Amino acid sequence: NAGVTQxxxxxxxxxxxxxxLQCAQDMNHEYMSWYRQDPGMGLRLIHYSVGAGITDxxxxxxGYNVSRSTTExxxxxxxxxxxxxxxxxxCASSLTGGRNTEAFFGQGTRLTVV
Amino acid sequence: xxxTTQPTSMDCAEGRAANLPCNHSTISGNEYVYWYRQIHSQGxxxxxxxxxxxxxxxxASLIITEDRKSSTLILPHATLRDTAVYxxxxxxxxxxxxxNLIFGKGTKLxxxx
Lengths: 114, 113
Hints:
heterodimer, A: mainly beta, 4-stranded antiparallel sheet, 11 strands, B: mainly beta, 5-stranded mixed sheet, 0% helix
């Protein structure tokens, strides 16, 4: 049981490049989400999904796309990277109902855009 | 915006109890109080949650006031490994946007030898 797995752990991009941050979970969780964390700040919600085929915007969605074709995977796409997207990105998953709805987080992807 | 207010930082002596306060005066009847922590650069880790009764697990205790407008997370015997940023979050239990975790800036707890 691996939990929430994020790849890559580190990435450097040039301005204008595109890339996909991968997130996978093996706990059969319906809910998945992406956050970014800038230095000295709390986590800010980018996008989230309550199940396969369903996605919605969070607090800071601009510049990012997501899709949810399977329960297990929730990739985050940067279509044209900008220096303002330099951040640490965290993926999380949880059940959507019942008592045990605590979120499990991945270890993060540290992205630098130059 | 986060619906909670927490002190920016706190210190605690190793081996003593750490009591972390949180104000959530606008909490709704169907919202739970959740606590997470983030140890240096790692992903946040779930600690505990509760609705109105006090809760205890192997990591911590959660005390919620009777009017539910504030709560306290208690780490009974703090260790150096408990040094982290602690986040208090209110949210509903079920899914959808109201169930999103919205993080504030949290409390930086420093446990000192």
